[in-house]
Amino acid sequence: MYLPQEMDGLVVVKVGSSTLVDASGRPDAAFIARLIDQIAQLRHGGRPVVLVSSGAAAAGRERLGFSAKPTDIPSLQACAAAGQAALTEAYAKELASRGVACGQVLLTRRDVTDREGYLNARNTFFRLLELGAVPVVNENDTVSVSEFTFSDNDMLGAIVSALLGASLYVILSDVAGLYTANPQTDPAARLVRRVTSVNDEVLAMAGGAGSSVGTGGMRSKLRAARAMIAAGIPTVICEGRADNILVRVAGGELVGTRFEADEGSSHESGRKLWIGLAEVTHGRLTVDEGAKRAIVERGASLLPVGVTKTEGTYEEGDVVDVVDASGFLIARGVVRYSSEDMVRVRGLQLDVIGRFMPDKATQPAIHRDELLVF
Ligand SMILES: Nc1ncnc2c1ncn2[C@@H]1O[C@H](COP(=O)(O)OP(=O)(O)O)[C@@H](O)[C@H]1O
Ligand SMILES: N[C@@H](CCC(=O)OP(=O)(O)O)C(=O)O
């Protein structure tokens, strides 16, 4: 990947709705000023920074006269459109007063899974950063509803980090990091300092969103952190309101929960997966509803039994698209069977496959660590 010299040390920082808005649902101006002050400090010190900001839907509620969080998608989208304007206004003003330009980038995850969109987005980011500006990113909620229904900006921040080859991904939340259980409901929960693998034991610690404004909860942060471990990008989840937190984390201080692969572990398939984001993929697997739910909602591996159709010619280890019955792209991943073998195993349980392919008895079609769900 072409990486201009100036991009060394790039930090992508994601801030969640629950941290950005105050108790009454208004964007918290004092918090925004403190956050931008830290970003400007890093920028002036030569560190390129990208801000991925949630909070548009929450910020737009009051502007459009909703007294509570709407539940229908068009109203949420309308709130996001109104709130995005308010947020950009606030960021641009705070950055300008510190001599830094702001560039608004609204993306959908699908924009960056198509090669042309990926390259265009990357060029825009790099040019903004070279020019000393801070790109401010959010999902383009006008055309995308996915994050209102099953995911959120934690993964968008991860995708942006991978797209730009960031050296650090920081997730600012309303909680000090990952706890052994949801600290809002379990007073005995303890902060976890370091995670080298987001396995079942780690996933079991996380509950959903803890507030009425956040959408993803800890689970979606863990999915994003898992993808980052695979891509070899260290990730920190920490309390956004803590004093000078971003500058401290970017300076290497150990706060919150840090996710990174063990030294010496190979990121090869992770890298391949991220490269796959930019490349034309080798094939396409169609999956049934059950498999779609398992990979999207539970973060499970894709098993051969859920694959209904295979197209294209690929080898074990290639990157393929995963689509649902209507052809909608839901994920991309490193496949563990060749296209020739996939024809034989699709629709079958692993124990049946094991009878005629003993070496594949425990092999998913795509392992969850190598599966990027959009
Ligand atoms: N194991 C856990 N550790 C920390 N927080 C957890 C855990 N399980 C659930 N949560 C909840 O996740 C919340 C953070 O997610 P969310 O509200 O979506 O924040 P954001 O707006 O920053 O994305 C926390 O406030 C907490 O209530
Ligand atoms: N694009 C949406 C993001 C919603 C979202 O991801 O929220 P969060 O869980 O707080 O990161 C918005 O700006 O409201």
Automatic annotation (TrEMBL):
PROSITE patterns: GLUTAMATE_5_KINASE (PS00902), PUA (PS50890). It is found in: Cytoplasm. Substrate binds at residues 54, 141, 153. Its EC number is 2.7.2.11. Pathway: Amino-acid biosynthesis; L-proline biosynthesis; L-glutamate 5-semialdehyde from L-glutamate: step 1/2. Catalyzes the transfer of a phosphate group to glutamate to form L-glutamate 5-phosphate. This is Glutamate 5-kinase. The gene is proB.
